[in-house]
Amino acid sequence: MPESAAQQFAKLQRLTPQEAVDYLQRRGRLTQTFSWQDLWHDEHAQQFTVSRLARLDLLKAMQDGITKSVQGDLSRRDWTRDIKGLLQKEGWWGKVDVLDPVSGEVVTTKFDSARLKLIFDTNTRMANSAGLWDRIWRNRSTHPYVRYITAGDARVRESHRAWANLTLPVDHPFWEAHWPPNGWRCRCRVTSLTQAEYDKGYSEYRGAYEYNPDGTIKKIPAIEQVPFNKAAPPEEFISWTNKRTGAVSQVPLGVSPGFDYNPGLAKARNAMRQKIGLDKLDALPAPIRKAAMTPSVGGGVSESFAQAVAEAHAALPINARRALAANGYEVRAVSRLLDEHPELIQQRPAGYPGELDFRHVDGLTMHDKMKILIAEQAFDEATGEWLAGNAERAKALLRHEVGHALDRINELLLEIGMLQAWQREAQALSKALGIGAAEVDQEIRYFTGRGVDGKGFGAHEVIADLYAIRHGGGTASYVPVAEVFPDTMQILSKLLDEKGL
Question: What is the pTM for the complete model shown?
Answer without folding.
Answer: 0.51
